[in-house]
Design a protein that fits this description.
about 350 residues; alpha/beta; Quinone Oxidoreductase, Chain A, domain 1; Rossmann fold; 2 domains; seven-stranded mixed beta sheet; six-stranded antiparallel beta sheet; 8 helices; 16 strands; about 20% helix; globular; disordered C terminus; binds NADP nicotinamide-adenine-dinucleotide phosphate
């Protein structure tokens, strides 16, 4: 049986994206095959499309996040056909990603999709929430310590602010001035507009989700911790600061716990916040076929834990979308320059494997 999948075999802009007919992937022991209902677009997809992680001439499947239903179960996998699930498919050069009609994942990379959430919402959770939670694990700060999150209004940053606050950290968010109110609502105790110079040696830890590098490192106190999101591109160590970078891991158990928090918590409000409103007003490029916002967020009963990544209609790479094949290519519009394309100490390296913090 054949299916459609989004792939690249040469790098470039959206024109490099191919809709390929491929055999439906076989399910192996310990795996599940998922019939894809929704798959989020993330910065990593645009980076893979443009060749940041290499693999020229190979067929590379795009898409890391997925929500859907279990379609086939391999030996030893503790799922049933029809289970509604979500999961994370890591890998920068795998031949098939989640932007496909079916995807096979290891059973332990999958978690139940929260019943209260739409497929599109569920698909927006795995990469962002796991990245935020695993970054905070790497930071290893204690209750009451101070944390600066750069890029705090982004997918990873927003969840990091929320989770850090839940963990009792005093969070400062660095973002566009327009996002101050939004980030306060997500738990940031303090706000710094991105136009301002960061205070030197002021924080116990920094999660550098905006990829500021040395500028963010300068804000860490002597002996503090810096965690970036681009392995191999960490700034040089100084002042006894512990430096590391996230390599996000698929972890169904951790994702299930994060989803439970999401399900019992507040959702992105029915009236979108400043970031989404600003982006929605942004200019449309005639004929570019910006994806329709197919699934507006619905408010859940409040009660308080995780909230959702803002759905940014003006930013295709952040928008969870249903798979409408006729328009798929337009979703992969060029994103902002990916930090991994810049010259760095160690050169670009992918993420999606083991994480670690250097001394
Ligand atoms: N290593 C890993 O395992 C891992 C895991 C997940 C993600 N990532 C990478 O981490 C990066 C962030 O991911 P994401 O999903 O959070 O991306 P995102 O949603 O695009 O968020 C990035 C945020 O940074 C902000 N920003 C950019 N420059 C800034 C500056 N100078 N000061 C303050 N804020 C600034 C952006 O604001 P504007 O939109 O207003 O410019 C945006 O809100 C991506 O490159 C992604 O590929 C790595």
């Amino acid at each position: 049986m054949l299916m459609r999948a989004v792939t690249v075999s040469r790098f470039g802009g959206p024109e490099a994206v191919e809709i390929t007919e491929l055999p439906v992937p076989a399910v192996g022991p310990g795996q599940v095959r998922i019939k894809v209902a929704a798959a989020a677009l993330n910065p990593v997809d645009a980076a893979m499309r443009s060749g940041v992680f290499g693999g020229a001439g190979e067929r590379i499947g795009l898409g890391w996040d997925v929500a859907g239903t279990v379609h086939a179960v391999g030996d030893g996998a503790d799922w049933s056909v029809g289970d509604r699930v979500m999961g994370l498919a890591t890998g920068h050069r795998t031949p098939l990603g989640t932007h496909a009609e079916y995807v096979v994942l290891d059973a332990d990379a999958v978690a139940p999709a929260p019943a209260a959430l739409s497929d599109a919402h569920a698909a927006s959770l795995p990469l962002n929430t796991l990245s935020a939670a695993q970054s905070l694990d790497l930071l290893d700060l204690c209750e009451g310590q101070t944390l600066l999150v750069t890029g705090a209004a982004g997918g990873v940053g927003t969840h990091a602010v929320e989770l850090a606050r839940l963990g009792g950290l005093e969070v400062t968010a660095l973002a566009s001035a327009d996002d101050e109110e939004f980030l306060a609502s997500r738990g940031a105790a303090h706000f710094l507009p991105r136009t301002e110079t960061l205070p030197p040696a002021a924080f116990d830890g920094v999660l550098d989700a905006a990829g500021l590098g040395r500028a963010a490192l300068a804000a860490v106190r002597d002996g503090g911790t810096y965690i970036g999101l681009w392995p191999g591109q960490e700034p040089e160590r100084e002042r006894g600061i512990r430096i590391g970078a996230l390599d996000v891991r698929a972890d169904g158990g951790q994702l299930a716990e994060l989803a439970r928090q999401a399900e019992t918590g507040r959702c992105w409000p029915a009236s979108p916040g400043p970031t989404a409103r600003r982006r929605r007003r942004g200019p449309r490029t005639p004929g570019r076929g910006r994806p329709a916002w197919t699934d507006r967020p619905r408010p859940l009963n409040s009660g308080g834990r995780i909230v959702f990544t803002p759905l940014n209609p003006g930013r295709p790479v952040r928008t969870p979308v249903r798979l409408f094949w006729s328009r798929a290519r337009a979703w992969y519009e060029p994103s902002r320059r990916h930090p991994a394309t810049e010259g760095t100490r160690n050169g670009p390296r992918g993420y999606g494997g083991a994480d670690g913090v250097g001394g």
